[in-house]
């Protein structure tokens, strides 16, 4: 005899085979099928069948679930709970897949004492456990039994699926222990929960535990019912909304309105197709998700939709294939532009480098020169020669930094910057972009656009250029940026440092004639609706237009005059009947007809150029509109007050040039043979005509000195000699800029000779032969050489001036 659980005496049974279970706990009086396929388990069943058909069933211990009555004395692989159920094998059946189906019925509980054998099947020694007998059924137990039955019925009403016979059987069961086992076996509890109920020996305590489990099941099912009800309501609402949306979609379809959902689907599809980088794809996806959650008619949805459309419309990964055929490029450049060899060579060099190194960075070129010389059209020709798209951005007057970087997308009316807008319009991520009039940028409280261009035009930084509107990086390293400017002075130094400056100078008369015959005249004849059979220009007529009406460095004025003549001829043809036009003779334009159509000549030889005068010298100036021949007049006025008067809207640099020239003449007066004592009694007035035109620059020194010397010496300088160069107070002549433009102006104004600083001789050697023709150029290093050219050789006693020139005295004003 052995002391059992709860102090009750039990008898040690004979050994029984052990059948361990994985996911089920068998209760007494429970009939359940068990499926086995392990050899040990099959051997245990067969051994039981040979005896009294009894076998011990216990579940494997669940790891981490310790508690009262849930111990396991056995080690793996037989680590089952100590408390199990002795069962009777009712029926067995071999299945086709090799498994065995065993139908068992629980008899009573038992406790494992020890493991006796492991081979060929596990065998254990057991102690039977009997429920203690209740002497009297109290009202408390009766109430508990009723509560369990009611809760079970409630669970079934909430949706718990049980066997139909269970509730009927329960009506006949009044014992607490058996009722607890029957309910627990049908609740579908987890292994650890069912085992904890099985381990309780007292029937009332066991029934209490079952009641707790039923109460929890009721709460879970009630929550599930509420969730299902809410979900059902939500689904009903969504179905209703879907139905209304479908109706609205049908109405919109009939009205021709776009469907927002279809549009979003298209956005998602396009996002998958575009070769966006990871950062860009995440940003677009984030914006699309936000858009899906918004009502499509709100203003925020409209802003987000526009932003997404802009992002998806950018040419991500789309590039024009470069045509690196150098001969083809040279042919196109020659077709579009006459001359400009320096510019064409630079483009050909870039193509050559690109063909050898496809990863070479694109140059940032800036064409610098007067208006009308073809800077903008050069950019278009470069794009055509490369086989790329061309976009032009006008920067004149731009003063808002957002025009370059774009506006923040949160602002109403926001839009991308001009750079990204041009790339979007081109449909390519590597177009040729012309930054027109980069020297006309302005700045105010809204920012400095030139500073924003620093990142755009830096090959080291523009690989990840972020436009404020787009909000994601875009690669600008493959874009060919070409800027143009009339002057470099107004371009900030940091921006100018990023540009490769290429000077595009004006054209000589010979070049203008060739350009007019090859490009301008055929173009304007076609624009006027004429042809070569109705109108032709003689060479002399083109020269007459150039010299008499358009003295400029560029070609705009010339093209306007040619267009004006073509329109007047077209009018003559339009005024007669159509049948009579074929009999009209071809109009051959001569200088006489040019004057008839255009009126009196606007430009003739200036009186300064015809005859030399005392106190007048001819200087050469360079402005943003080209070169100019500038007359400088000096006059002595007897006033009794010595002073220097400068007029003609001169800048600070030219005023300083006049002061330096006068100081030089005072110091070298004996060598030049002039009497400077008269300056103590007279006022020296230096004037530059055309006062409405601002004049400044360090190149008028020798012209100032010549004018003053002529006035002091009373002798006119050599006629039709123009000069350029700055002078120091020791007479040295300094280098100048814009030599080509100045020589063009001298040639245009009919000069015979030009005086140029010696340091500019290398620049002169690069000029075309057409520009050097009909001009005798003198290169000088100091003013003494200039003096010899203009006034003759200096004698031993001084210069060729008389000490007291009569002509000068006659010219003094009292």
TrEMBL record:
Locations listed in the record: Cytoplasm
Domain of life of the native organism: Bacteria
Cited Pfam families: AAA, Lon_C, Lon_lid, LON_substr_bdg
Record-level GO BP terms: cellular response to heat; protein quality control for misfolded or incompletely synthesized proteins
SMART domains: AAA, LON
Induction: By heat shock.
Keyword Endoplasmic reticulum recorded: no
InterPro entries cross-referenced by the UniProt entry: AAA+_ATPase, ATPase_AAA_core, Lon_bac, Lon_bac/euk-typ, Lon_lid, Lon_proteolytic, Lon_Prtase, Lon_prtase_N
Active site, per annotation: 699, 742
Gene Ontology CC terms: cytoplasm
Keywords: ATP-binding, Cytoplasm, Hydrolase, Nucleotide-binding, Protease, Serine protease, Stress response
Catalysis: reaction(s): Hydrolysis of proteins in presence of ATP
PANTHER family, per the entry: ATP DEPENDENT LON PROTEASE FAMILY MEMBER
Family: Belongs to the peptidase S16 family.
Role according to the record: ATP-dependent serine protease that mediates the selective degradation of mutant and abnormal proteins as well as certain short-lived regulatory proteins. Required for cellular homeostasis and for survival from DNA damage and developmental changes induced by stress. Degrades polypeptides processively to yield small peptide fragments that are 5 to 10 amino acids long. Binds to DNA in a double-stranded, site-specific manner.
Protein name: Lon protease
Protein encoded by which gene: lon
């Amino acid at each position: 005899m052995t002391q059992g659980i709860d102090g009750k005496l039990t008898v040690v049974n004979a050994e029984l085979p052990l059948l361990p279970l994985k996911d089920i706990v068998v209760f007494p009086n429970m009939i359940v099928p068990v499926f086995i396929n392990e050899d040990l388990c099959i051997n245990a069943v067969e051994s039981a069948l040979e005896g009294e058909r009894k076998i011990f069933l216990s579940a494997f211990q669940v790891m981490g679930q310790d508690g009262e009555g849930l111990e396991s004395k056995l080690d793996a692989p037989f680590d089952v709970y100590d408390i199990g159920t002795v069962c009777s094998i009712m029926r067995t059946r071999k299945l086709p897949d090799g498994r065995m189906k065993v139908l068992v019925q629980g008899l009573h509980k038992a406790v494992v004492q020890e493991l006796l054998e492991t081979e060929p099947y596990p065998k254990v020694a057991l102690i039977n456990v009997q429920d203690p007998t209740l002497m009297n059924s109290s009202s408390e137990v009766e109430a508990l039994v009723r509560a369990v039955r009611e809760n079970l019925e409630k669970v079934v009403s909430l949706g718990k699926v049980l066997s139909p016979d269970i509730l009927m059987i329960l009506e006949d069961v009044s014992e607490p222990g058996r009722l607890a086992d029957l309910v627990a076996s049908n609740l579908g509890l987890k292994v650890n929960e069912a085992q904890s109920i099985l381990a309780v020996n007292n029937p009332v305590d066991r029934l209490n535990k079952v009641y707790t489990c039923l109460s929890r099941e009721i709460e879970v099912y009630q929550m599930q019912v509420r969730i299902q009800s809410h979900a059902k309501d939500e689904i009903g609402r969504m179905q209703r909304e879907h139905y209304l949306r479908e109706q609205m979609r049908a109405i919109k379809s009939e009205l021709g309105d776009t469907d927002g959902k279809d549009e979003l689907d298209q956005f998602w599809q396009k996002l998958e197709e575009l070769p966006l980088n990871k950062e860009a794809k995440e940003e677009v996806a984030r914006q699309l998700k936000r858009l899906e959650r918004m009502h499509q008619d709100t203003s925020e949805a409209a802003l987000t939709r526009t932003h997404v459309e802009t992002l998806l419309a950018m040419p991500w990964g789309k590039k024009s294939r470069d045509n690196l055929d150098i001969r083809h490029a040279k042919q196109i450049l020659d077709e579009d532009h006459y001359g400009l060899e320096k510019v064409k060579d630079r483009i050909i060099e870039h193509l050559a480098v690109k063909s050898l190194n496809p990863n070479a960075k694109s140059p940032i070129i800036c064409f610098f020169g007067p208006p009308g010389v073809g800077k903008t059209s050069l950019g278009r020709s470069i794009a055509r020669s490369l086989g790329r798209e061309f976009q032009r951005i006008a920067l004149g007057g731009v003063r808002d930094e957002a025009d370059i970087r774009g506006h923040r997308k949160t602002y109403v009316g926001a839009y991308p910057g001009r750079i990204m807008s041009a790339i979007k319009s081109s449909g390519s991520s590597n177009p040729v972009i012309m930054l027109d009039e980069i020297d006309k940028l302005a700045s105010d409280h809204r920012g400095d656009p030139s500073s924003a261009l620093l990142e755009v035009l830096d090959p080291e930084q523009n690989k990840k250029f972020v436009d404020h509107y787009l909000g994601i990086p875009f690669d600008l390293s493959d874009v060919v940026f070409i800027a143009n400017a009339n002057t470099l002075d107004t371009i900030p130094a940091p921006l100018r440092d990023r540009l490769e400056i290429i000077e595009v100078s004006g054209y000589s008369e010979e070049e203008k004639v060739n350009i007019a015959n090859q490009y301008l005249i055929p173009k304007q004849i076609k624009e006027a609706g004429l042809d070569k059979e109705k109108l032709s220009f003689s060479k002399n007529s083109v020269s007459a237009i150039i010299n008499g009406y358009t003295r400029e460095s560029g070609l705009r004025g010339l093209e306007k005059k040619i267009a004006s003549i073509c329109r007047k001829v077209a009018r003559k043809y339009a005024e007669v009947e159509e049948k009579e036009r074929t009999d009209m003779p071809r109009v051959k334009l001569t200088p006489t007809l040019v004057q008839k159509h255009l009126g009196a000549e606007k430009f003739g030889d200036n009186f300064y150029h015809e005859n030399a005068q005392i106190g007048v010298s001819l200087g050469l100036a360079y402005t943003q509109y080209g070169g100019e021949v500038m007359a400088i007049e000096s006059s002595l006025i007897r006033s009794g007050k010595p002073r220097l008067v400068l007029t003609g809207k001169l800048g600070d640099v030219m005023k300083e040039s006049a002061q330096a020239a006068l100081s030089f003449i005072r110091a070298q007066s004996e060598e030049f043979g002039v009497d400077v004592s008269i300056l103590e009694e007279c006022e020296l007035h230096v004037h530059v005509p055309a006062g409405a035109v601002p004049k400044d620059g360090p190149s008028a020194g020798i012209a100032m000195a010549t004018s003053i010397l002529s006035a002091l010496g009373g002798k006119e300088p050599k006629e039709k000699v123009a000069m350029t160069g700055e002078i120091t107070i020791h007479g040295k002549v300094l280098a100048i800029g814009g030599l080509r433009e100045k020589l063009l102006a001298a040639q245009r104004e009919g000069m015979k000779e030009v005086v140029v600083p010696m340091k500019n001789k290398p620049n002169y050697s690069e000029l075309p032969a057409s520009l050097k023709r009909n001009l005798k150029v003198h290169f000088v290093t100091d003013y003494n050489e200039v003096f010899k050219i203009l006034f003759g050789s200096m004698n031993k006693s001084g210069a060729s001036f008389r000490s007291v020139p009569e002509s000068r005295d006659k010219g003094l004003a009292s």
